[in-house]
């Protein structure tokens, strides 16, 4: 695994369950304990990050950043189910990362483009506002896959490629076989339909 393996000194009363590791870390602040706990779930964290970021290097970076985040967050929260909580933290981290990114400018950059310099959050009109809580973020995210599947195939495919995978107009056209005019039409209609679905 790409993540550095954490080791701790021998201890006769070492924690065994996730809950015991959490309690021990919160009581001692021992990073070796947190590292060992985190290592148990790194594959899950990486899988979650890759699902949303779609990039191996960015996903690996996110795994490292999340460990640093846990050093502070785990002390501030009462965590009952660490695995479930960590999954939510990883997912929210990726959402915030995506919100901060800009959609790549398509080849040609014509003036009729769909505001491709705006954040993905604005383009899809499904992401939460800055003041939303982590629960709000998860709620928005949980509704997106179902809403996407309810779109006509051409719209769903184009939105996935252009907004989520950040392909240019030309790349979407090459991958789908649609011409540029069709791609832009499917994106416009797909965005509008997606917003309508999520507002119901």
Written overview of the protein:
Helices cover 67% and strands 0% of the residues. It is an all-alpha fold and 200 residues long. Helix 3 runs parallel beside helix 5, helix 5 packs across helix 7 and helix 8 crosses helix 10. The longest helix has 21 residues.
Layout of SSEs?
Blueprint: H1 18-28, H2 31-40, H3 42-53, H4 56-76, H5 82-100, H6 120-124, H7 134-149, H8 153-164, H9 169-176, H10 180-199
Order of secondary-structure elements: HHHHHHHHHH
The overall strand count is 0
CATH fold group of the largest domain: Rna Polymerase Sigma Factor, Chain: A
Global structural class: mainly alpha
- The CATH homologous superfamily of the largest domain corresponds to RNA polymerase sigma factor, region 2, helix turn helix motif
Radius of gyration: 20 Å
Number of helix segments?
Answer: 10
* Percent of residues in helices: 55-70%
Strand content: under 5%
CATH architecture of the largest domain: Orthogonal Bundle
Mean pLDDT equals 76
Low-confidence stretches: 1-9, 102-135
Main beta-sheet annotation: none
Total separate domains? 2
Q: Class of the largest domain, according to the CATH hierarchy? A: Mainly Alpha
Q: Overall 3D geometry?
A: elongated
Distance between the termini: 43 Å
